[in-house]
Amino acid sequence: MKLPxxxxxDKHAEIRRLYFKTTKATIQQDLDKALDLLKSMNSEEExxxxxxxxxxxxxxxxxxxxxxxxxKGSGQRGQGSKKKG
Length: 85
Known about the structure:
The protein is mainly α. The protein has one domain (8-71). The chain is built from three helices and no strands. It has helices at residues 8-21, 27-39, 44-70. Helix 1 packs antiparallel against helix 2 and helix 2 runs antiparallel to helix 3 (44-70). The chain is elongated and about 35 Å long. The N and C termini lie far apart (43 Å).
């Protein structure tokens, strides 16, 4: 996907918007778009500003994907999901 030329503030605002609008159904595509925006930032300072939203989206994805696999909302593996050797 070709992104228009955005300022650092525009990129940060778009990542923030994605964070607040994402749903269980859209989390992966929203996270992919946010990651593309993060990669296009020029400096570490710019990326650090967006890190809280990226971490939040990653956490939501873990929780939602864990709920699908294990039937739990915690996203953590239970004892019943360990592989036996």
